[in-house]
Amino acid sequence: MYYEEPLFRPPSEARSLIFQITIGCSSNQCAFCGMYKNKRFRVRDLPEVTEEIREAGSLWPRTRRVFLADGDAFVLSTEELESILDLLERHFPDLSRVGIYVNASNVLTKTDEELRRLAERKLTIGYLGLESGNNTILAAVGKGSTAEEMTEAVQRCQAVGIKMSAMALLGLGGQSMSRAHAADTAKVLNRMNPRFLSLLSFIPVKGTSLFRRIQQGKFMELTSTEVLREMKWIVEGLDLQGTIFRSNHASNYLALAGRFPRDKTRLITEIEECLAVSKGMREEWERGL
Ligand code: SF4
């Protein structure tokens, strides 16, 4: 298999066979993201990918899950994606699902009919970085899509059978925008009602513009307690139906898992308990204990 490192995939694709059909991210503009900073975006040659799928099919014919990397593979035209999905079906007879990272703009350039054709070919899970539901924050970090565009992208994908996994970034608004970030993110997530939701925590990455803004004192990061408080505000504001929730990424201070609406109260209690411990530790530290 050919991989141009670094290679990223969502945690839930840990058992999937990965084909890197694009290299890097066509946007590569987000102020917080260092994932593909060292890669120049390109679409890999179809004959090369075809050969790889053929070989992998003979080595691992029982493969059930495939993930298409890199950051922005949905940028391919519907026809290109269809030919890759057809190949996957041919070489992996047990294939049950194909996953992919999506940007709102790449969804919105496709018609409902095109999205349906992709879903019929087992492209049935898409991962979208909402990051924030607040348009001021999205513009400040150069996301390139508005909350409304991302909502439409999620709704249109889900309407044709592509389950969507949305990711939001705790702390992305810094201290000054924490309240607005939480309130608007919950509001937008409620409109999207994604099948899966993950809350990750913003970690400054060297070489990104947000890292530089922190160093220049222009962006005030949240403390761990403030991140937890923001997480509580978001969870309190969520009114989701049938969404599977995870907050167990390595970046998180508190690992949470549950299903909405069933586990909402328990999730809030767990965050409150963690906040109480955090407050107690801080008081002890201030008293010099
Ligand atoms: S967050 Fe996503 S869209 Fe933005 S640069 Fe990183 S991979 Fe690309």
Characteristics of this structure?
TIM Barrel, single chain, alpha/beta, 10 helices, 42% helix, two-stranded antiparallel sheet, eight-stranded mixed beta sheet, binds iron/sulfur cluster, 289 residues
Notes on the structure:
The structure is a single chain. This protein is α/β, with parallel strands linked by helices and 289 residues long. The chain has helices at 46-59, 78-91, 104-108, 112-120, 135-140, 147-159, 178-192, 209-215, 224-237, 264-286, and strands at residues 17-20, 22-23, 42-43, 65-69, 97-102, 123-131, 163-170, 196-201, 243-246, 257-260. It has a single domain (12-283), classed as Aldolase class I (TIM Barrel, Alpha-Beta Barrel), CATH 3.20.20. The strands form 2 sheets. The chain has an 8-stranded mixed β-sheet. Strands 2-3 form a two-stranded antiparallel ribbon. It starts with 16 loop residues before the first strand and ends with a helix. The chain binds iron/sulfur cluster (SF4). Iron/sulfur cluster (SF4) binds at residues 25, 27-30, 33, 35-36, 71, 103, 129.
What's this, in brief?
The chain is 42% helix and 17% strand. It is of the alpha/beta class.
Which percent range describes the beta-strand content? 15-25%
* Radius of gyration of CA atoms, rounded to a whole number: 20 Å
- Number of separate structural domains: 1
| Helical content band | 40-55%
What is the CATH-assigned architecture? Alpha-Beta Barrel
Largest sheet at a glance? 8 strands, mixed
CATH uppermost class: Alpha Beta
The gross shape turns out to be globular
Identify the bound ligands: iron/sulfur cluster
CATH topology (level 3) name: TIM Barrel
Number of helices: 10
Question: What is the first-to-last residue Cα distance?
Answer: 55 Å
The helix-strand sequence is: EEEHEHEHHEHHEHEHHEEH
Widest β-sheet, arrangement of strands:
1-4-5-6-7-8-9-10
> Which regions are unreliable across 5 or more consecutive residues at pLDDT < 50?
none
